[in-house]
Design brief:
The chain folds into 2 domains: 126 residues, 3-Layer(aba) Sandwich (Rossmann fold); 30 residues, no CATH class. It has 6 helices and 5 strands. Helix 4 runs parallel beside helix 6. It is globular.
Length: 170
Amino acid sequence: MYDNILYPTDGSAGSRAAAAHVRELAAAFDATVHVLHVVDKPEGGLGTSGAFLDDERKGMSGESAEEGYLGGHEGKPDADEIEERLTEHVTELVETSSKSFDGIDMRTAVEVGTPHSVILRYADDHDIDLIVMGTHGRTGVERYLLGSVAEKVVRLADPPVVTVRAPKDE
């Protein structure tokens, strides 16, 4: 029934909660798990400079969040360099998290783009039978303002989508 299960992860509590469901489903159906992380790249590339961050979100030396996250360097990194370093870092995270699927056939991928679009395209390109993903559980104005990747995937995906909410204490 389910030969290929897509597990999009962002490392959040919701994603970690979904991992347990993915493991059980994959084991029950002897399915291949596709672990996917999308490096979010807003259209137009806005926000990569850190110019819109307030002082509390900047590092102690006044560097942008990306510069502090990516390690110190001389001058400001360009958008391509930020994207490359984030992709390398996330690739390591995906490889590490995939170790929890011991004994299950796995594929890992890191892609760059708008998360819901990349997830939907990946599902189409890899004949995914089921998508299992975490959700932050936002409601009301917060969901309206921030949007919901899970909600967009649920509404637009061809295969069934299982969403797993993060535990309330996380």
